[in-house]
Amino acid sequence: MEDATPQTSVKRSPNIIDTFVAQCGKCYKWRSIDSEEEYEEIRSKAPDKSFECMKNCEEPGDVDVEGDSTRLEHQFPGA
């Protein structure tokens, strides 16, 4: 006996990453990274050298990370 139920496919949207962040090894604040290329460069150096933000570490972080939720604290040009 054949199954008469039509086959449906579930379309899933691809994960789109539009914001890159890194945690400063000096002040431990999360900083927004301008591009994927810059992020990948930081990431490639991570085993040998921690990322240090170019901002004054007294400034608030760009991103608030709490548990499973993340929220941008500031709007950036082009965002």
TrEMBL record:
Identification of the protein by name: CW-type domain-containing protein
Domain CW-type: residue ranges: 14-65
GO molecular function, one term: zinc ion binding
Keywords for this protein: Metal-binding, Zinc, Zinc-finger
Record's keyword annotation contains Metal-binding: yes
One Pfam family cited in the UniProt record for this chain: zf-CW
PROSITE patterns reported for this sequence: ZF_CW
Keyword Metal-binding in annotation: yes
